[in-house]
C-alpha cells in the first residue's frame, strides 16, 4: 500500500474533532495510529466559544506540545453569537457553530493537494463536515470514540423513536431491546435522547445519528472480543431494516500508555509501598465533582472497609450541591473541611487522598491497584480493561456512562454496580460492601480472572496480526480501493 512513505511526499489524514478533552484526547490516540503507518496527520480545531476548566483550554496546548509529530491547525475565527447569554441550549449552539465553520474547513482542505489528501476523519458531532467532503470528493469517515454497544443503540434509536409520538422519559427504567446489546433501561440512554422527538435538542441528536450512513465507514474505539455481539449487530443487514450501514472497523483500544506521562506524582511512590492488588482506586473523571455529603459517605465506607485506598477528590464549592459549580472556580479542594474530622489521621497508614488529578493510566497499571471505582466514561473503561482491573461502576448523569455501566456488568462481566447510582447517592454501607466484595470474596476473584483475560485479549488485538491491527489495515485498503 503506497501512502507516500517510499515516495517523495506522504499522504495526509485530516482529523476533525469537536473541541473538549473527551473528543481531542481519543482523536490524538487515533492520530498516533496513522503516524505509525506512515501518514502525515493534521488535527483541525475551532476556537472554543466558551472557556472553562474542562473545555479543553490548556489541554490542547499540552497535547500539541507532547505530540510534535501531529500538526494542529486552528481554523480562523468567525463571528459567533454570545453563547453565554443565548437562550438556546449550548449543544445546539455548538452544532450550529460547527456548521458555520464549513467554509473555513473547505478552504483548508483545498489547501492540501488532492493527491496527498488521504481522508477526512470526523467525530460524532461534526456531521456537517460530511457535506464539505462530498463536495470535494474526499473520503470521509467517522471516528466513534465510545464503544460498539453505544454505537449499536445510537444506530437503531432513530427507527425506534420514529414509531413513537412521545419521548422515552415516561418509560422510566423499562428495558428496551436493541440488537447486539443487553436490555437497556430507557432511563440509561443519553439524556437528550429521552425527550419528545419534536424537542429541538432531541431532533438535532437524531439527525446526527442518522448521518452515520453518510460516511464511508466508522472507526470504533473497541476490539472484537470485548464487544463481539454489538459489532456483529452493526454488520447485520437487519440492524436497521431498509438501510445499508457503512463498514465498521474495531481498531481499539486506543488509550494512553503507562509511563508516558512526564509528570511524576506522589501517588505512584505511595503505591510502590503497597502490596499487590490491595488498593481500591477512586476517580470519577474530569467532571466527577461530588457534594460534601457524598464525600462523607465515601470516607466512612472506605474507613469501615479496612482496605487500602487511593482517592482523587473533586468537589463542589462549600455550601453547593451542584457539581457543575465546581468549574466556576479554580483551585483545589480543602480536604480538611470536606472530609470527616480525624479521617485523614485515622487512615493515614492505608489511604491517600489527592486533589483534582492523578495519572490514571499509570495508577491502573500499577501492581498494587486491585479495584477501580469509576464513573464509566468509555476512556476510563478501556483503560481499566487494558490494565486488567475490575470495576466498581458508579456512573454519573453525563453522556453514555449509564449505558457503559450495563455493558461492563452485563456483557463484559468485569464489574459490579454501586447500588444507589440511579438515585444519585450511594451510602457508606454500599461502598464498604462492594470494596469488600471485590477485594475479599469469591465473586471478586472471578472478576479478577475475567479482567486478566480481557487484558490479554486487548493486548493481542493491537499486536501485529491482531484483529484491531487487521481492521485498521482493512480500512486503509478500503480507502485505497475507493
From TrEMBL:
Protein's UniProt keywords contain Transcription: no
Keywords noted in UniProt: Transferase
One GO molecular-function entry: UDP-glucosyltransferase activity
A Pfam family this chain is assigned to: UDPGT
Keyword Transferase set for record: yes
Gene3D superfamilies cross-referenced by the UniProt entry: Glycogen Phosphorylase B
InterPro entries: UDP-glycosyltransf_plant, UDP_glucos_trans
PANTHER family xrefs: GLYCOSYLTRANSFERASE, UDP-GLYCOSYLTRANSFERASE 88A1
Protein name (record): Glycosyltransferase
Species of the source: Panicum hallii var. hallii
Amino acid at each position: 500500500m503506497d501512502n507516500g512513505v517510499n515516495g517523495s511526499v506522504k499522504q495526509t489524514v485530516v482529523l476533525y474533532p469537536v473541541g473538549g478533552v473527551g473528543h481531542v484526547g481519543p482523536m490524538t490516540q487515533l492520530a498516533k495510529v496513522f503516524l505509525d503507518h506512515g501518514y502525515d496527520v493534521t488535527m483541525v480545531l475551532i476556537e472554543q466559544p466558551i472557556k472553562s476548566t474542562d473545555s479543553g483550554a490548556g489541554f490542547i496546548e499540552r497535547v500539541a506540545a507532547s505530540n510534535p509529530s501531529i500538526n494542529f491547525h486552528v481554523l480562523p475565527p468567525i463571528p459567533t453569537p454570545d453563547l453565554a447569554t443565548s437562550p438556546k441550549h449550548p449543544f445546539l449552539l455548538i452544532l450550529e457553530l460547527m456548521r458555520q465553520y464549513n467554509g473555513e474547513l473547505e478552504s483548508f482542505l483545498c489547501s492540501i493537494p488532492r493527491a496527498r489528501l488521504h481522508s477526512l476523519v470526523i467525530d460524532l458531532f461534526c456531521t456537517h463536515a460530511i457535506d464539505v467532503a462530498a463536495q470535494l470528493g474526499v473520503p470521509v469517515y467517522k471516528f466513534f470514540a465510545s464503544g460498539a454497544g453505544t454505537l449499536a443503540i445510537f444506530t437503531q434509536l432513530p427507527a425506534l423513536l420514529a414509531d413513537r409520538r412521545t419521548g422515552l422519559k415516561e418509560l422510566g427504567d423499562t428495558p428496551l431491546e436493541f440488537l447486539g446489546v443487553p436490555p437497556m433501561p430507557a432511563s440509561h440512554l443519553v439524556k437528550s435522547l429521552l425527550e419528545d422527538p419534536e424537542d429541538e435538542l432531541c431532533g438535532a441528536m437524531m439527525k446526527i445519528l442518522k448521518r452515520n450512513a453518510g460516511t464511508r465507514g466508522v472507526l470504533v474505539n473497541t476490539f472484537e472480543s470485548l464487544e463481539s455481539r454489538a459489532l456483529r449487530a452493526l454488520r447485520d443487514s437487519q440492524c436497521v431494516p431498509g438501510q445499508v450501514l457503512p463498514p465498521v472497523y474495531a481498531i481499539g483500544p486506543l488509550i494512553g500508555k503507562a509511563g508516558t506521562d512526564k509528570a511524576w506524582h506522589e501517588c505512584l511512590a505511595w503505591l510502590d509501598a503497597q502490596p499487590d492488588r490491595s488498593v481500591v482506586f477512586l476517580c470519577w473523571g474530569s467532571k466527577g465533582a461530588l457534594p460534601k455529603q457524598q464525600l462523607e459517605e465515601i470516607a466512612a465506607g472506605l474507613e469501615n472497609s479496612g482496605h487500602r485506598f487511593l482517592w482523587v477528590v473533586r468537589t463542589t464549592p462549600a455550601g453547593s450541591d451542584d457539581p457543575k459549580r465546581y468549574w466556576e472556580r479554580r483551585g483545589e479542594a480543602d480536604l480538611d473541611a470536606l472530609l470527616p474530622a480525624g479521617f485523614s489521621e485515622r487512615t493515614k497508614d492505608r489511604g491517600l487522598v489527592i486533589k483534582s488529578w492523578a495519572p490514571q493510566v499509570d495508577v491502573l497499571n500499577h501492581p498494587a491497584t486491585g479495584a477501580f471505582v469509576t464513573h464509566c466514561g468509555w476512556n476510563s473503561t478501556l483503560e481499566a480493561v487494558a490494565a486488567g482491573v475490575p470495576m466498581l461502576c458508579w456512573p454519573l448523569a453525563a453522556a453514555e456512562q449509564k449505558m457503559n455501566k450495563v455493558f461492563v456488568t452485563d456483557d463484559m462481566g468485569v464489574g459490579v454496580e454501586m447500588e444507589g447510582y440511579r438515585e444519585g447517592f450511594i451510602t457508606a454501607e454500599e461502598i464498604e460492601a462492594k470494596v469488600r466484595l471485590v477485594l475479599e470474596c469469591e465473586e471478586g476473584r472471578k472478576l479478577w480472572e475475567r479482567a486478566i483475560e480481557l487484558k490479554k485479549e486487548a493486548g493481542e488485538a493491537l499486536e501485529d496480526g491482531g484483529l484491531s491491527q487487521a481492521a485498521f489495515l482493512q480500512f486503509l485498503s478500503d480507502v485505497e480501493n475507493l
